[in-house]
Structure formats: structure tokens, C-alpha cells
Write a structure and sequence with these properties.
The complex is a heterodimer of chains A (109) and B (268). Chain A has 109 residues and is an all-alpha fold. Chain A has two domains: 59 residues, no CATH class; 34 residues. Chain A is built from three helices and no strands. Chain B is an alpha+beta fold and 268 residues long. Chain B has two domains: 124 residues; 136 residues, Alpha-Beta Plaits. Chain B contains seven helices and eight strands. In chain B, a hairpin with a 2-residue loop joins β2 and β3. Chain B starts with a strand and ends in a 10-residue tail after the last strand. The chains are: A mainly alpha (109), B alpha+beta (268). At the A-B interface, α1, α2 and α3 of A face α1, α2, β4, α5 and α6 of B.
């Protein structure tokens, strides 16, 4: 038998988040047709409401860029997408510089 | 009329009598009925009766729309499973509101998935689930990373020409990319260090409840399955990482031990 440990959390609110993300999504899920069917509580409404709060905060801090960034969503390795995005941005910047250079040259012609 | 609410699956704990052993004397989800076991061979589903007045299909699907009801009952479900976990480990936790109308269905479920359940229980022996979240305190991290770059930038005139504007935009972009890369590098490094002490890990959804006013943003959320003998080491490593990175606004928060929600088998 295992020694008894108590669950400790930093805040009450993070406890609920931790509980919800586990018991609504994980654990043993029975897909059969004999049990009482519960609508999928996709956490969506909860999540959207809470995400909005964080996005606002992030914008306030001038750091809204990360919210939509797949690199930080911890789902899968998005290195390739990320490096491609970077390359596109570099090219865009290079291109805009070239446009300016060509504009600067116009009066000389 | 009542239905049967399922909490978790455990093995018989009393080898000599071949029975479930101690079932915690707690009341179930509706507060009126206690926990009991539905056995099949050496497996047991721990259940309680729940009133149809609250736990019928139509009532439940209305109730879960109510965040307060959901929060209250989610916590209760978790507390009941934890009270079992304190005396029976390992266990396989059931998803919230797994409810049957008849006990016979539950026996059939155990029978049909017997080897899946026993394999999972064997695998989870002497292991615990912990959650680790990584937070970034945005302004602290930004200050730490870009002090010199940022200052240089502020000295630029605001009435810039088109070229200066583009340069400025480029610099801003670079700073952001740099920040993103730095955070990304750190969370990957943190994950790889703590993974060394775990058997398995699973990414969780990032639900930002709380911390709304502190400017902290959650950037990583994983569950780890850890062998008991490595647990102290696992927690110590996290403490060391926290000490090393707190000055730049990075913070790891652990929770656990959890019932192994993230490491329970999938049933088809």
C-alpha cells in the first residue's frame, strides 16, 4: 500500500482547472451506447472565456504574439512550420527594403 | 429511481478472501448513497447510486451548462476518487459522469475489457501522475532578455522616414522572435530535464484559470507518470529549475499525485 499524500495546489482556481482538464477529457471513457449519454463538455465555453482574459492581459503586456503561435501550444513539433514562417518574414523584410532602394533611385534616373 | 455512477476500477486488495478490501466510507455524487464495489474476477468498479432526479441524461445535460454546478461536482468527483486512491493504488479513474442504468452493464464492461484493465493496473503499479505547468511573467522575461536591445530602440526618433520605420519594425519583429525562441528553448529544455525522471509524459490543454492579474501566461502544461522511487528526485529537479529561472520570470508549478487520468487506457 502506498503512503498517503495530500494534494497541494498553489491556488484554489488552479485546482479547478487541473481537475477539469483531467476529469472531463481524460480517464477511462466508455463509448458504448448503454450508458447515460452526456453532451461533450468540450471545455470550449470555459476555455474561450478564460482565454479571452489571458489574451487581453497578454496584449496589455505587448505580448499577444505568442497566443496564436503553435510553437507554444505544446501539441506537436512545429519546428518546420516555424522555420518556414521565419523565412517568409525575412523575405518580406528583404523585399520591402529592396522596394525602398529602388524608390530612392528613381530621382537619379 | 436511481442510476449507477462509476468512479474508478481497482483490483482486489484482500488476497486471502479474494475481495475488494477497504472501500472508503464516503458518500457519492448526490450525497445520499455510499460507495460500494461491483466485482468481476479480481477487478472492481467502485460505484454509488445516484438519484435520477439529478443524474438522468436530460437533467445532467442541462446541469453541466452551469459552470458553478460543474465546478462543484467536478471537485466532488475528484475528491471521491482521491479518497479511494489513499487506500487503493493503482486505480483507473473513470471520466466524469460515467453513469449506467443497470449494474449488469458494468459487469459486462469489466468482462469485455478485462485484460486491458488488468494490464493497465499492472503498468501503473508504484507510479504516480503529476502535473507540471510552466508560466512566464511577461514583463520580467522581456526585461531580462532585451534590456540593451530595447533601450537602443527607444532612442530612435518617432518621426521616422519610411526606411527607419521599416527598420524599426524589423527590430521589433526580431525582438519578438528572439523572445519566442528563448521561451521555446527554455520550455523544451525544462521538459527534457524533468522527463529524465519520468516514465511517460502527456501534454495537457492549457486552461488559464487564475493568474489573470499577475501578468503570468501559461506556456507549457504536461502530465508526467513517475515511479515512486524517482518522485523525490523529480520534485527536487523542479525546485532547482525554479531557483535557476525565477529571476527571468519563469515559474514551474506542480500538482499531484493525481489519479492516473492521463495514463489510463482508451476503450473502444
Amino acid at each position: 500500500m502506498q503512503t498517503q499524500r495530500t494534494i497541494t495546489h498553489a491556488t484554489e482556481s488552479s485546482t479547478l482547472a487541473d481537475v477539469l482538464e483531467r476529469i472531463l477529457d481524460k480517464g477511462i471513457v466508455i463509448a458504448g451506447d448503454i450508458k447515460i449519454k452526456l453532451v461533450d463538455i468540450e471545455l470550449l465555453t470555459i476555455q474561450i472565456r478564460l482565454l479571452i482574459a489571458s489574451v487581453e492581459k497578454a496584449k496589455e503586456m505587448g505580448m499577444d504574439w505568442w497566443v496564436t503561435n503553435p510553437e507554444l501550444s505544446s501539441k506537436k513539433d512545429t519546428n518546420e512550420v516555424e522555420s518556414l514562417k521565419k523565412r517568409v518574414e525575412e523575405l518580406e523584410i528583404l523585399n520591402s527594403e529592396r522596394v525602398i532602394k529602388s524608390k530612392e533611385k528613381i530621382p537619379l534616373i | 429511481m436511481t442510476n449507477v455512477y462509476c468512479y474508478c476500477i481497482i483490483e482486489n486488495a484482500d488476497e486471502t478472501t479474494g475481495t475488494v478490501g477497504t472501500v472508503p466510507k464516503v458518500t457519492g455524487m448526490d450525497g445520499n448513497y455510499g460507495l460500494y464495489s461491483i466485482p468481476y474476477r479480481n477487478l472492481n468498479m467502485l460505484v454509488s447510486r445516484v438519484s435520477e432526479d439529478e443524474f438522468s441524461e436530460s437533467k445532467l445535460n442541462d446541469a453541466i451548462e452551469d459552470i458553478a454546478w460543474l465546478g462543484r461536482h467536478a471537485t466532488l468527483h475528484e475528491k471521491i476518487v482521491e479518497s479511494v486512491m489513499n487506500v487503493h493504488s493503482p486505480l483507473l479513474p473513470m471520466k466524469f459522469c460515467t453513469i449506467y442504468s443497470e449494474e449488469a452493464y458494468i459487469k459486462k464492461l469489466l468482462e469485455k475489457n478485462y485484460s486491458t484493465f488488468t494490464d493497465a493496473i499492472n503498468y501503473l503499479k508504484d507510479k504516480v501522475e503529476y502535473g507540471v505547468k510552466v508560466y512566464v511573467e511577461c514583463s520580467a522575461f522581456r526585461n531580462k532578455m532585451n534590456n540593451s536591445l530595447h533601450n537602443q530602440f527607444e532612442t530612435m526618433d518617432s518621426n521616422d522616414s519610411g526606411r527607419d520605420y521599416l527598420l524599426k519594425r524589423k527590430a521589433k519583429k526580431l525582438i519578438q522572435e528572439n523572445l519566442l525562441a528563448e521561451i521555446s528553448t527554455r520550455i523544451k529544455m525544462i521538459h527534457s530535464i524533468i522527463s529524465e525522471w519520468s516514465t511517460e509524459s502527456v501534454p495537457n490543454k492549457m486552461l488559464n484559470i487564475g493568474n489573470k492579474t499577475s501578468g503570468e501566461i501559461q506556456v507549457q502544461n504536461f502530465s508526467y507518470l513517475i515511479e515512486n522511487e524517482y518522485l523525490d528526485r523529480f520534485l527536487r529537479v523542479i525546485k532547482e529549475i525554479n531557483n535557476r529561472h525565477s529571476h527571468e520570470g519563469l515559474k514551474l508549478m506542480t500538482s499531484g499525485p493525481w489519479p492516473p487520468y492521463n495514463f489510463s487506457p482508451k476503450i473502444n
